[in-house]
From TrEMBL:
It comes from Photobacterium proteolyticum. Transmembrane segments: none annotated. InterPro entries: Nict_dMeBzImd_PRibTrfase_arc, Nict_dMeBzImd_PRibTrfase_sf. This is Nicotinate-nucleotide--dimethylbenzimidazole phosphoribosyltransferase. One of its GO terms (molecular function) is nicotinate-nucleotide-dimethylbenzimidazole phosphoribosyltransferase activity.
Length: 342
């Protein structure tokens, strides 16, 4: 039986007023719960962790879209129907609340936790040896992220390394939040403008990087004990691409394949960023048309209200490359969201 290991970095960016710049969270003082609840949605099809003591299992977001986590849940179920077994590897990076996986529909779940700043140790001790094990066992993997507020730090890095006019589509189109986000990024730019273009300087400072960036850098810059060169399938957008540009190809120890949604690649800034990637790094976008869905909540993805997250693009590309038709994919996505929208 073929295994798919779905690996996800869960984290929240170190911003004091994150709820004022992102729609990807549950609100003030609750943003830390979003990655945990998304992991539950991926495994169980519902969120089990309460919000302010209230059981709120729905994946419906404030923008009337749905969390990409519930779509990943539908895709993983479809892959199971194709004969794959799915194991979730949940990396809680600085998140104190552990997920409640009651009612999981996956075949296996593994959870790991570290304090902020300890991401490199966790990657070296747990993730890298596990990826080597998977490689020798002939198992598949996808490495995803649920990093709330991560586009803010991806933008900081891209502005610092490439050009100050770089901006990225994030989780909100709210005018007030966009103004606040721009102000936050400017403050970060001013604070770290004197830093050299050296990735180690940024990842050693917890206010100049977020946990997902630190974990990814540790993974890509560390050679395995047995010198195995891994072919890593990254499922993410600019939160993964920004660290690649900051690191530079010379320090990356593994082969890379990036799968993401096609919405990540739309726009002048995205093309400008991607043009700086080395040709050895392949970026493959999904092709599934969400306008074929029965639900407006999925149509909103096509309108840019949700761009990427929770490994959605990588899961779509994996399913597409496995041979699932667009109709099959849309049917599994619709089935995942139907209980919450009707």
């Amino acid at each position: 039986m073929q295994w798919l290991n779905f690996i996800i970095f869960n984290a929240v960016a170190p911003l004091p007023d994150l709820h004022r710049v992102s729609d990807a969270g549950a609100g003030e003082n609750l943003m830390q719960l979003t990655p945990t609840r998304d992991a539950e949605l991926i495994a169980c099809g519902r969120a089990n962790t309460p919000l302010n003591g209230v059981f709120s299992p729905s994946p419906v977001a404030g923008s009337e879209s749905v969390s990409p986590a519930i779509l990943v849940h539908g895709l993983l179920k479809a892959l199971q129907h194709q004969g794959l077994k799915v194991r979730l590897h949940c990396y809680q990076l600085g998140l104190e609340q552990q997920p409640d996986f009651s009612g999981s529909m996956l075949d296996d779940i593994v959870c790991h936790y570290c304090l902020p700043g300890e991401e490199a140790r966790l990657v070296r001790q747990q993730l890298l040896p596990e990826l080597v094990r998977q490689y020798h066992a002939g198992e598949e993997h996808v490495i995803a992220e649920c990093g709330v507020g991560g586009t803010t730090f991806a933008t900081l890095w891209l502005k610092h390394w490439l050009a100050n006019e770089i901006t990225l589509a994030g989780s909100t189109k709210d005018p007030e939040k966009l103004v606040m986000k721009a102000k936050t990024i400017k403050q970060l730019m001013d604070q770290f403008s004197f830093f050299p273009r050296d990735v180690n300087t940024f990842i050693q400072h917890q206010q100049a990087s977020d946990p997902v960036q630190r974990a990814l850098c540790a993974l890509l810059m560390t050679q395995s004990h047995d010198k195995t060169v891994l072919a890593l399938r990254l499922a993410g957008g600019m939160m993964f691409i920004a660290p690649l540009l900051a690191m530079g190809v010379d320090v990356i120890q593994h082969q890379l394949h990036i799968a993401t949604t096609r919405w990540v690649l739309e726009g002048t800034n995205a093309r400008k960023v991607l043009s700086n990637l080395p040709s050895s790094i392949e970026v493959v976008p999904s092709v599934t048309d969400f306008n074929q869905s029965s639900y407006r909540a999925l149509h909103l993805y096509e309108q840019g209200y949700v761009v990427e997250g929770c490994g959605l693009g990588g899961s779509l590309v994996f399913a597409e490359q496995l041979g699932l038709s667009q109709q099959q994919i849309i049917e599994c996505l619709d089935a995942a969201v139907k209980p919450w929208l009707e």
